[in-house]
Structures are given as C-alpha cells and as structure tokens.
Specification:
The chain is of the alpha/beta class. Helix content is 22%, strand content 38%.
C-alpha cells in the first residue's frame, strides 16, 4: 500500500493554489473541473503519484468556508531548515493568507526543530527540520 493523496476542502481555489505553490514550493500537477457536479480539484505536490504523495484541494462551487471540527490535526512537511522556510514565507503569508502560528524552535522535551503555519483556510501544517532532505527539495 502507498499513501497517494490527502484531500482538503478550500473556500477559494486560486488563493489556496497560490499558497501551496508560492509559500510551500509545491507544483500544481493537474486540475479537474466538474461543472455538472459543481466542484473543481487541484492536485499539488513535490512530485507525482505514485512516487510522491499529493495534496488534493477540492473547491465545491459556492462554498467559501468550512468548519475544521476537532478531529483534524495537521499535515507535516520535512524541510532542510525550519527557520529559513519560515523567514522566506513571512512576506508571502501577508499577501497570500495564512500565518506562522508556532515560531521555529525545538519540540518540548526534545531537540527536533519544528514550526507550525496555517494555510488561508486554517489548515495546520507542521514544518519539521530534516537537513538530509535539502537535496530532495531543491
């Protein structure tokens, strides 16, 4: 078995595509518009299935916001430097939406460096420092 994608419902598809591509450096891989069913899908990631998992953004026509509920936690991304990723994201977050909600630093009781950001729809994304992934992300 293999993880293929995670689906997130979004209130503004272009805003979310801009966030994931410009703030997190993902690539828009493909889109599917289904006007008869009243939705559009956008798949983003750092590579294509099946080698890489993707994020599926789903925009349902006419729905601009969703309730998070209490079950959703976060998506985690490995980055070479959490501090550098947050520094690069700050200016873009101001114009594209989202925020850094936990500044870079070690986890409680440990040494792994993390930070949290939220996307324009409020989904949490954990950045986990993985210096060995520097070559994979560039």
């Amino acid at each position: 078995m293999r993880l293929l994608h995670t689906m997130l419902r979004v209130g503004n598809l272009q805003r979310s595509i801009d966030f994931y591509t410009q703030v997190l450096g993902m690539t828009l891989l493909r889109t599917t518009d289904r006007p008869e069913q009243q939705y559009t899908l956008a798949f983003l990631g750092y590579g294509r299935n099946p080698e890489h998992a993707e994020i599926e953004l789903t925009y349902n026509y006419g729905v601009s916001a969703y309730e998070m509920g209490t079950a959703y936690g976060h998506i985690a991304l490995g980055v070479p430097s959490v501090q550098a990723t947050c520094d690069a994201a700050r200016a873009k977050l101001a114009t594209l939406g989202g925020a850094i909600t936990r500044e870079p630093g070690p986890i409680k009781g440990g040494s792994t460096v993390i930070a949290f950001i939220t996307d324009p729809d409020g989904y949490k994304i954990e950045l986990i420092e993985r210096p060995e992934q520097a070559s994979e992300l560039n």
